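protien #1 (seq + structre)
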Amino acid sequence: MNTTMKASIRAAAVAALAVTLTAPRPARAQEANAGGPGEWLSRYTTARTLGLGGAYVATADDPLGILWNPAGISGMDQNEVRFENARLFEDTQINGFSLAVPGSWLPSFGLSILSLSSGQFQKTNDMNDPLGTFKQGETAYLFTMSRAFTPRFALGTNLKLVQQTVEDFNGGGFGVDVGGWYDVSPSVRIGATVANLGGPSISLRDKAETYPVNVRGGAAARVLNGRGLVAVQVDQAEGLGTRLHAGAEYWLQGGITLRVGFDDAYGTGGFSYRFAPQYQIDYGVADQPLGMTHRIGISYRFGGFFASAKADPDVFSPTGEHAVTKITLNARTKADPDRWTLEIVNKSDEVVRRFSGAGQPPAHVQWDGKDENGLPLADGIYHYRLSVKDRVGREVLASVRQVTISTTGPQGEVPVVPVGQSEEQPK
């Protein structure tokens, strides 16, 4: 084996090891495997999935979720573009870009590109004399198609091309992933995938390296009126063995989500902030023996299927100038709308007023600050959310927003000054 090839192999191993050691994994697997074929892709985590401990096969409802389950995009409502970045040690980094377009009577489609790039590696001969530097890189292109056969069942597939470059050597190969999910109940979903069917198999020179088959299965449950998620997952792959993942997330008011997870041997966490409400920023972190691993993601949602509600004004007084607030409603469902519901809840998450009706929601409703019995409610902050179900049982939910009842006027102290005495004089 010549010097160049030796250096190339060492560089490939180092780059794979960079991803291997900075992704959450058991210590026993680190000792047994220093970066197998395609491990950088099978071990890839986004900011959200890192926060959930990698337990994502039963959810996978964002564009890059196709890496866990290609059927996941059938559970999405809006078109979405996502970008992710992960910076590892030795200047190694992974960038991800993905676009997903959910369908109704047509299948859902997705396109994703992920790239692993290393820093500069030192090339030496058998005498350890420096011969310059070079880089190593891998890129994966994935085309996804998914179809929901019923509101409770969907199947999907990834067709992927992976290219690898080490110095002057390069190669590529094709592979297939298949996956599906099934809703056991309105709040519980199970999912499973088989990745790397028939490849990719890449030859840099003489010998081909084939990505091992990776099997994933898990379940996810919506809790706390849909504001919480609990998920578990088990993975099995040659070289990596069996790994357990678990995680949970909770949506706070104001578009903030907190996450905590466990990835076989390491604790993880993260958060998201949704604003405008089309934009979302995700952050994930894991505690590694080599240090903290960080992920950052940005997404933009547009078009597709949605529900929205907005109160104007968002602070009103039933006894003042603004006696009511007008809540504008809008929705687009995958099938014909069947029924809509707008619920207003207090700080104890109790529904104090409900508006509902058949078909498409009206352009707006007016709320006078009274409960279901027509009694005035106390001053304070209330939250509202619009949900719309279509004729086959699918539901789109608007973001949770808040509105404030305030019947009291401005408060403060008015100084009393005795006659003949200025404010500067002591009382």
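ok now protien #2
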Amino acid sequence: MIIGHGGNKKDLAKAIGCDVNDIIDMSSNLNPLGPPENIEKIICDNLVKIRFLPEPDAVSMRKGFANFHGMDHNEVVAGNGTTWFIYTIPKALGSKKVLIFGPSYSDYRDACLMHDIAFEHCIAKESERFEPDIDELSRMTKVADTVFICNPNNPTGSLILLEKLEYLIQKHEQTCFIIDESYLPFVDQAHEISLVSKTRHQNLIVLSSMSKIFRIPGLRTGFLSAQQGLVEKIMAYYQPWSVNALAQAVIEYIFDHPENIEPFYEKTREYIKAEKQIFLANLESIQGLQIFDSHTYFILASLKNGMNSRQFCERIGQHKILIRDCSNFFGLSDKHVRFSLKERKNNLHLADLIKEITK
């Protein structure tokens, strides 16, 4: 397991001698608007449910997700976050050779290491601003039986459009594609890009996170969508009561009010669009930093002033702001950092610090 996912607020607070609540976390990829209204009230109202076992297969929240996406709930699995699926899929599929499109989330690699499964990476090039090379991905897929693609990708923010993904899926029918759409709700017109309801493909698995967009990572909830044959393979490794009672209550509430979901997505996207524009405008004249285009609210940057990522993060951290050192992403280096946007005041404060440190 990689040490260094975002969000180590306690370590930074201890290092600089402040209260953990004083740390502004701009390292973790979570909705800057916070959870939707009423979510915390729903948790409090349902505390009594911790006295009883939840549904063993979380069928009610599966049905809510399926109804929202217009699909059969038997094509959906509810899990303890998408991470559980990532670590389970290669074993459940009997994968022999995995291809990981990167630089990307380390758990795809770690899942292969856990099960002693061979893997390799198809790395997008910094010289091409980390834009996906579909031809190269297709070429390398020829020798893989399983492919992981994060779309939009973490940490680069790159996006592969629907027609290109379907081209790959249809061209390589003997290869199973796992498309991780954890960050897709943050993208404009996400429903036109999503593969969630495209379960006509027999070689497709789609992962959907509730943690990021609804900012409830501590509840650990996520979904897997696929044809029933693939679902049955995953369910062979499913543990009863994998989703706790409070998580089930919250997700059931969200899908019991589908009329609120898309407006919440739109509000989030509008907010991110405005804040990203302002943040990037404040960094336009900086010579010591290269910013890469992102389709979502986190932004990857490359340091060009001789400072490495650890030094840069430490300098920013002295001001009680936590950002992501990306040196432990395979395919990146100790010159890469990532910023996850929050409230405007904090975004502008970070921009000012970056200008000061990189001048």
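The mean pLDDT is 94.
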